[in-house]
Amino acid sequence: MSNHESLLAPKERVLSTLNPDGSRRWLKPRPSPGTFRTARRIVAYLLIIVYSAMPWITINGKPAMLLDIIHRRFTFFGKTFLPTDTLLLALLLIILFITIFLVTALFGRVWCGWACPQTVYLEFLYRPIEFLLEGTPGKKKPKKFVGFRKVLRVLIYFVISLHLAQTFVAYFMGADNVAHWIWGSPAEHPAAFMVVVVLTGLMMFDFTYFREQVCCVVCPYARMQSALLDKDSLIVTYDKNRGEPRGRKTRKPMDDASGDIALPQLGDCIDCTMCVQTCPTGIDIRDGLQLECIGCAQCIDACNIVMEKIGRAPNLIKYSSERIIEGGKKHIIRPRVIIYPLILLAVSTLFVVLLRTQSGADILLIREQGSPFVVVPESQDVSNGVRMRITNRTDEQRVYNAEIVSPEGARIEGFVPLELQSSEKDSRVFRISAPFSQFKGGELIATIRVYDDSGAFESEHTFKLLGPMSLPKAKDNEP
Ligand code: SF4
Ligand code: SF4
Question: Residue whose CA is closest, atom 3 of ligand 1?
Fold first, then answer.
């Protein structure tokens, strides 16, 4: 290391994926077979099926999940939320966040290690393909067709990345559209084609090059850990009381205080570094809880293999809590474990009540542009222009009509029944006329009933009609 390099070198470890000179430290985690690895593999393949199938599954004739940002319609498990459902969507987001807080407080980063698509696809799809074609770390590398194997890996990565990009787009644009684009010419849909090309490139970049940096540097969830975890959260942790002082059992005897030769009293950790070599984020769990630990439990499996080989009890590294490792008692009931579920219960109840009492249509009455009212001289009626915006919230086509309820003598003019498909919205412009004699101080409240052809929906809405304070006096007969 040159002089200025050593000056710039950090005194402490900055990132597990950086060398002291700032260059990338490439990780080649050794796979460690074991109970957790097997369980994670089963979960991962089930999740890959779920993630890929979700946009294609339909419930009530709608996609299981469709985040249609362009039309501002969000469908979850057959229920569509429209832009007017701001409160419901806000409640849904609160439920999601509180659930994340609760799960993290109880089980640490179980999402990161077991279910996050980044971990699932990298550890159980991309990396196994790399190991298969280019050799598994810790084992002999294949020496034949090295170049061909690399090219084949890139090609397979490309196919998987393309599939992932199309699946990702299907979540936002709908599976039908994506299927149509896949079989059509790119010239017919250049924008969608470019989106898929860019996303495929990003997937390739992520799973080929960037990899664990997503968890260590980019993901905001990792940065929130210190606030979300407490001493009783379940985390992957090293039992330092049992493991330390670490050292190889072959270490030479040393002189004790009396000058006699004595064997050092070592803990169960033989400092084989298998737990470090298997870690997908390159950290040493023996240094304690770290931001980069995604809770994947690979180090548990790795260490258990070692413990079995040397005839020691398993679980030197294990799922536990900081409090237990420090000698404290298990402490499940604590403030955040009570407060989060209570908030969750309250918000979920409100969400369900609002969802159940939601009406079949959204109706909005607004004053039409232009002159607020017109007086018909012959009848002395005052007429107001009104625009009615209707959103069909049902899953079926409906025809909407309107009629006047009050005041007496008022009538609707020019309203043409409005036919709307499911989730569609449109507006009608019409006029409401009422006798001037009904107006007080230039105002009159009219009540309008809106109903649909199914008979399942009807609602009443009030609208303030405007009129003159007085009518112009009829002019004397002019010659
Ligand atoms: S795998 Fe176990 S024994 Fe080996 S270094 Fe890690 S903690 Fe120590
Ligand atoms: S320290 Fe263990 S649990 Fe944490 S990321 Fe590394 S291997 Fe996974």
Answer: 269
